[in-house]
Write a structure and sequence with these properties.
124 residues, 4 helices, transmembrane, membrane, Integral membrane protein
């Protein structure tokens, strides 16, 4: 279930990043719609992070190193989008859309790695 949730974040992040890339390609600065998409993506990522943390506490059986790695990826995944939004807010040209696209791809990679670490370090 956890790996499936991380793939939901991955798919949403890549779709949103693609939208930002297309906007940058046509010379469009980030719009209100981009910011709404960012908030939705951040909300979904937050819910997934809470589910994973609860899973870590309830399931147990993972080494301390694996738990630290998973939590580190979750913290980074939740921090990337607000940082990207702040940087894009300062850059009100098409390059603001590029910054948001990079934040979306980074979020997707972090979600993928979280799911991979979860699957590999599962309780035996």
């Amino acid at each position: 279930m956890i790996v499936g949730l991380t793939f939901v974040v991955l798919a949403l992040a890549l779709a949103w990043a693609l939208w930002c890339v297309v906007s940058a390609a046509v010379g469009q600065a980030p719009t209100f719609g981009h910011r709404v998409g960012l908030l939705v993506l951040e909300g979904v990522a937050l819910v997934v992070a809470l589910v994973i943390v609860v899973g870590l506490v309830v399931e147990g059986g993972r080494t301390t190193g694996a738990v630290v790695e998973i939590v580190g990826y979750l913290v980074a995944m939740l921090a990337v989008l607000p940082i990207g939004a702040a940087l894009a807010h300062g850059e009100r040209t098409r390059y603001g859309s590029v910054v948001l696209a990079v934040a979306g791809v980074t979020t997707a990679v972090l979600a993928l790695r979280t799911g991979q670490v979860w699957a590999v370090t599962g309780a035996r």
